[in-house]
Every structure is written in C-alpha cells, then in structure tokens.
Write a structure and sequence with these properties.
Four Helix Bundle (Hemerythrin (Met), subunit A); globular; six-stranded mixed β-sheet; binds adenosine-5'-diphosphate; alpha+beta; binds magnesium ion
Length: about 725
C-alpha cells in the first residue's frame, strides 16, 4: 500500500479524553490579561489615573509611574507563572513578531533577581534590521523601537512548558516612521475621530471622541496533519499548486451551517477557551460553504483591539489545530475549484458614549446624523476604491479577487432595497424634512426599526451595509486587518470633512438646517451614484456595467498596490497624519516585493514537485502502459487468443495520452524556469508584471496537465494526498 493509503486508514484514531467538569467562561474570561481592573488593584490611584490619561488623551505617564506599572505587571505575570516578557508587534510583513527577554537580572552578589523596569515596559529595541523597512532605514537610522500601546492590554501566552508576558506594542524607526501595521491604524483612528467630531458638531451633536469598531469574521480550512506532511505545496506555499478536483466538491452545499464534526468541534472549543483566557470575545463558529471550511467570529471591539485579537486568534488557531492532529489553513485559496477563505471586516464608528454612528436613530436628528454618516462612507468608497482594493492586495488574495473562480476586484456598495429607496428620494429632493415618525417612512415603515429588523443580504457585495455597520468583504483570510481599517478610517475621515464643509457652506446660503443637510446629501449621493450596486457582483453583466460606470477592476496585485504611491493618495494620507510619503512608498515596496517572492517560491515549489513527485510515478505508469501495449501487439498476431479489434489502438491512445501529458509538463516546467531566469535582471515592478501575466498562466498550464495525469494514474502510484481525501476525510 502507498503511504497515502496508510495515512487515510489511520485517520481519526487519536482519542481525546472526555472532561467531566467544564469551567464556566465567566470564571476564567480574561484571566490571562493584565486588565485595567487588575492594574487598578495593584497600583496607586494617581498612577492608574495617569495611565488612563495616557490612553484617552495621549499624555505619556512619568518614569516613576511607568516603574510602578512595570513592577505590578511583573508581579502579576510571575504569579501566573511567566518567566519572560516580550514586546509583541505587527511588522509590515503581515505576521506578528516577538523577541523574548527573561525577567532575571544578576546583582553584584551573584544572586538572581526578577526585575522589570518602567523603561523596559514602555520601550524595547529588537534588532530592526531583520524586518523589512522598505527603504526607510536606508534614508534614516538603522534602529527600530517597539513602544507600548496603552490601548491594548498585556497578556500571557502559554505553551505546555512555560508562559510569556506579551506587551502589545507599536514598532517605529529612530525618527518615528511607522515600521508596523498598528501605528497607521492608531493614527487613522485619531483622524477619523477628529473628522467625525467635527461633522457631528456641524449636525449639532457634541462628542469628545469617536472611534472605529470592528468585528472580523475569520474563515479557514482544517485538514488532517498527516496529509499536510505529504504536501510540499501546502507546507511551502500554503496552497495546493496541483491537485485534481474531487468528484464531490461543494456542489451539494451540504456543509454550510451543517452539523459540526466532533473532531472539529473539539478543536473549536479549545480555540475558544484559549481565546477567552486572553480576553478575545469569539462568539460564533460554524461550517462554511466549502468542505472542511469553517468560520469564527468575535463580538466587535474597538478596531485596535479587534486587530490585535484577530492576529492572536489566527495564531491560536494554528497552534491548537496541531494539538488535534489537524492543520489550520489560513491561505485565501488553498484548493482550486472550491471557495476560498475571506475575512469579512465588519466596521462602524462609535462615539465616546458608545453610540453607534451607523445605527439608524429613533429621532429625526438621529436619522439625519445616520444618513450623513452613511453618505460619507458611500462617498469615501466611491472616491477611494483604489485604496480599498490596494489594502487587500496580496498574492494569495489575488486568487479570490478578479481570478476566474472568484468575485471581480470591483469595489461597490450595497445598501439594501429600503435604504436605496430612501437615498433615491433624497437625491431627487423629494424628502424635504426628516420628521420623527413619517419623514423617511415612504410607506415602508419607520426607518430605524425597518433597517434594524430587515437583514437584507447580498453576499456578493464587497462593501455591504448590514443593518448598523458596513461589511468590507474583500479581505483575505490571512490578512492583518489593520491596513484595511486604516484605509477605511482615513477615507471616511476625508469625506466627513468634505461633507462638513459643504453643509457649513449650504447653511450660509439657506438658513433651514435640515434643508441644508438634505441638499448636500442629495448632491453627494448624485456624485457617488456609480458605486452603488444592488445586483449580483459575480455576474459577467456587472463586470461590463462597472466598466461603463468607470469603476476600476484591477485583478493584478502589483498594479493594485500602486494606489499607495499615487500622488493624490499620498497627499490624502499625509493630510490626515496617517502615513507620510516615505511610509507609503515603503509599504508599496515591501508588499510588491512580497508578491514577487511568493510567486517565485510557488514556481520553484511547483517545479520541484513536478520533477520529484509527479513525473517519476508517471514514467513508471508510462512504462507499464508501454509494456502492456507491446504485449497486446504480440498477442494480436495470434488469432486463437481473440484480442478484440480496437484493443491495440485503445492502448496506444492511452500511451500517447500519458506520454503527451509528460511532455507538456516537462516542456512548460522548463519554460517556467527559463522565464524565472530571464526575469532575474528585471526591476521589481516589471518583474511582477511578467509574473502576473506570464509566469502565473504557465503555472496554471502545468497544473492542468498534472491534474489530468492524476485523474488517470493508478491510485496507488500517486504519492500526493488528493482533494477527495484532504477535503472529506477527518
Ligand atoms: P452577520 O449576519 O453578518 O454574520 P453578525 O451580527 O453576526 O452579522 O455580525 C458579524 C460581525 O459583525 C460580528 O463580529 C459582530 O460583532 C460585528 N459587528 C456587529 N456590530 C458591529 C459594529 N457596530 N461595529 C463593528 N462590528 C460589528
Ligand atoms: Mg457577515
């Protein structure tokens, strides 16, 4: 039997010991976070208030206060069994980074003490040279610093043999440039706060602060670990580079929301427990559409926390999966021909009293405010669709956006029938006054109740209004959500500023407040109209219609990333203090280079697999067919055996088929390697262009022939776990 068959027969045999008592979540939720409540108990009132002021107004605490907090944190962490600490941050490569240091210090008497100072709490200095800076360091200083982010609590990460205190931090260069994904997010929250407070003020509402809220829905695949170990492509590229479709895929759609297999549910339960310990509020878990595809969703939080928590969730999912003999695949398209995995970014804005600005209100004023915020978001998406597209542009997500099995890379906004009708009426000037009960009634019922209760859905829309939040659905499953949030916040801030100044101008012309606001809304709706689309985003009609409307549809990652170096966009980000030109160019450079490297790794992995795993058994089979053909030819001379007519021709056909498959695989692989070689001297942007337009199609071509071979070769001779196994056996 082949290794593959052995594995398949052994799957599912590792038993889990049943627990008799299960702790209730409230008894341990957040037990591994240094929460405000814990801090409050452990430090003086003055220091605690100082810390709160730092969080809320950005007034950094004194050295003495920092020492006090560091000491408390150390005591707390040691009481939890931690021996080391690390500043935990999110470099521009999309992973998270940590450099552990122990608490120990040696005093003069050769005694070991456990120490942690305020300065070490607030600032760390990892070796920045190991992280890409996109040229920032070439022009500035080589050093990079991690600096504590007071808005995200420290937590303890656990493995069997030890615990580590993790301090969420930002990562900056010596001159203050953001070397990470978190600082731009924090700056964008400040920008959107400023703009929203200003807009609310124009609308007659005072608020101190506004912040963005997020709830990312995380999709993923699980497969048995033993299959994973036999798949070089999954290990090196995160996705299958070859693999014939399974006769049963997702056609029956019998997996979605179906009963969850026990083995998977055990995994989900453990992930949730690990999450609860460090205060990640995961709440929803279910099967997704594709076989072996699942989803986790948390209760929404402030964006910054949501972003940290999503990074941690992904990390925990991978770690916990291994404990269950499973591998968690976060790649956007691990399997061809069935759905990929995304991450729906639910986004809204809330004021300091916790009021959701996208919640249709109960009063005329609230309705007017809701509509103004809503229209600001629509205008932002219309004006900066290129930036939204760029924020989700990665080599992996390219298989989801604009590829042949996936939604197009066109940004559009879905509002639902009722809201669309209301905006239509406002645009036409038919609504003159937003009244408490009937102004936006339109015979359809009250706006507030109406929208809350109708869960109008369009699952194909990349940017959908879903009741009291927008859902940005184009994010890939492995993406760090920070960049998309930073983009949404920044573009919304800009549109809010524009709407605020238009409303102010209109107010000068016409005294009636509501009429002035509605006039502005009408104008902005008219301008942004092309971005509104209620139909099926996956249809060819929409691709054509969008082109007529002048909406961008950029399938290529490197092309999409160019939005980050477009002069108007640089100006926009600089204006809002979110990213400087240097920081944007750095990001463009790093992300384009990552694209190049990923495609190269994939191409080389494919070549190696073809040469060492696909072709050798194919030659063997080719030989067997040749032998049997010889035999048939020999025997056909002997009329007494009675070989049927056509048998020789049929075997010849198979021989030719296998032989030509082998030939094309080899020919295209050689061409692929030559193309890689030829591209070596090209500059980055041109290399990426060639990879997108020539290398990737070549890879697809090789795959087609390999997959064809897979479906004809003897099962026993095929060494790679097949789709029908990886996706169905568990
Ligand atoms: P769906 O029907 O789209 O699955 P849910 O109500 O289950 O919607 O919410 C999906 C995600 O949206 C959850 O993570 C939820 O916490 C989040 N969410 C809900 N309200 C908000 C909000 N105001 N801001 C940000 N995210 C939100
Ligand atoms: Mg959703």
């Amino acid at each position: 039997m082949s290794k593959r068959t052995d594995i398949t027969l052994a799957i599912g045999s590792s038993p889990i010991t049943k627990r008799e008592t299960i702790a209730n979540v409230a008894s341990y939720y957040g037990s591994n976070t240094f929460s405000e409540a814990v801090m409050k108990k452990m430090v003086s009132e003055k220091t605690f208030n100082g810390f709160k002021q730092w969080q809320e107004d950005g007034v950094v605490i004194t050295e003495k206060q920092a020492n006090e907090i560091a000491n408390a944190m150390k005591e707390w962490a040691i009481s939890k069994g931690a021996t080391s600490y690390t500043h935990w941050f999110q470099p521009m490569t999309g992973l998270t980074a940590e450099k552990h240091d122990s608490f120990i210090a040696v005093n003069g008497k050769e005694q070991v003490l456990e120490k942690f100072s305020g300065s070490k709490l607030i600032q760390g200095e990892p070796d920045a040279s190991s992280f890409p800076s996109g040229g920032i360091r070439a022009t500035f200083e080589a050093r990079g610093y991690t600096v504590l982010d007071p808005s995200s609590p420290a937590f303890i990460s656990e493995v069997e043999l030890g615990r580590t205190l993790c301090i969420p931090s930002i990562f900056i260069s010596y001159t203050g440039e953001a070397l990470d994904k978190k600082l731009p997010l924090l700056r964008s929250d400040a920008a959107v706060s400023k703009a929203a407070v200003n807009l609310l003020k124009v609308l007659g509402h005072e608020s101190r602060q506004v912040f963005s809220t997020c709830g990312p829905e995380q999709e993923y695949f699980l497969i048995d670990e033993s299959y994973y170990r036999l798949r070089t492509d999954l290990q090196l590229a995160g996705r299958t580079l070859i693999g014939a479709p399974s006769p049963k895929g997702q056609q029956l759609e019998d997996q979605y929301f179906g009963s969850i297999k026990e083995r998977i549910l055990n995994f989900m339960i453990e992930v949730a427990e690990e999450c609860y310990k460090i205060g990640i509020p995961v709440t929803t878990r279910h099967n997704e559409v594709a076989p072996h595809q699942y989803e986790f969703a948390p209760i929404f939080e402030r964006s910054n926390l949501a972003a940290d928590h999503n990074q941690l969730l992904m990390d925990l999912m991978k770690k916990v999966a291994r404990r269950h003999g499973l591998v968690c695949l976060l790649h956007e398209k691990p399997f061809a021909g069935i759905n990929g995995s995304g991450k729906h970014l639910n986004w809204s804005l809330a004021d300091d009293k916790g009021n959701n600005l996208l919640n249709p209100g109960e009063t005329p004023e609230a309705n007017l405010q809701f509509l103004t915020v809503l229209v600001s978001v629509i205008h932002a998406v219309y004006s900066h669709a290129d930036l939204l597209r760029a924020s989700v542009a990665t080599a992996a997500n390219e298989h989801r956006l604009g590829a042949n099995e996936a939604p197009p890379a066109i940004m559009s906004v879905f509002l639902g029938e009722q809201l669309t009708e209301i905006l239509d009426q406002i645009e036409k000037g038919k609504i003159k006054k937003v009244k408490k009960l009937d102004a936006v009634d339109l015979g359809l019922g009250l706006l507030p109740r109406f929208i809350k209760d109708t869960s109008d859905r369009n699952r194909t829309s990349p940017f959908a209004f879903t009741g009291q939040k927008f859902e940005f659905r184009a994010l890939g499953s492995s993406l760090n959500i920070s960049t998309s949030i930073a983009v949404v916040n920044t573009i919304v801030a800009d549109s809010m500023n524009q709407l605020a100044s238009l409303i102010r101008g209109e107010l000068k012309k016409q005294g009636n407040f509501e009429a002035a606001v509605l006039t502005v809304l009408s104008r902005v709706i008219k301008d942004s109209r092309p971005i509104l689309f209620e139909g099926n985003n996956y249809s060819q009609d929409w691709v054509e219609e969008a082109a007529r409307r002048g909406l961008a549809n950029e399938p290529s990652t490197p092309e999409a990333l160019k939005a980050f170096i477009n002069a108007a966009n640089i100006d926009l980000f600089e204006r809002h203090g979110v990213l400087s030109k240097v920081e944007m160019v750095a990001r463009y450079h790093i992300w384009t280079e990552m694209y190049q490297k990923i495609i190269e790794i994939e191409a080389r992995t494919l070549a190696e697999m073809v040469n060492t795993q696909v072709l050798p058994p194919a030659y063997g089979f080719q030989g067997e067919v040749a032998n049997s053909l010889d035999m048939l030819i020999d025997y056909s001379g002997d009329k007494s055996i009675g070989i049927p007519d056509g048998a020789v021709a049929d075997r010849k056909e198979l021989f030719i088929d296998i032989s030509s498959g082998i030939l094309y695989i080899r020919k295209n692989s050689k061409e692929m390697m030559e193309l890689l070689k030829r591209s070596e001297s090209l500059e980055l942007a041109e290399k990426c262009r060639v990879y997108f337009s020539e290398l990737k199609p070549l890879m697809a071509h090789i795959r087609k022939h390999v997959d064809d071979l897979e479906s004809k070769m003897p099962d026993e001779a095929w060494p790679l776990p097949k789709y029908k196994e990886m996706l169905f056996i568990c």
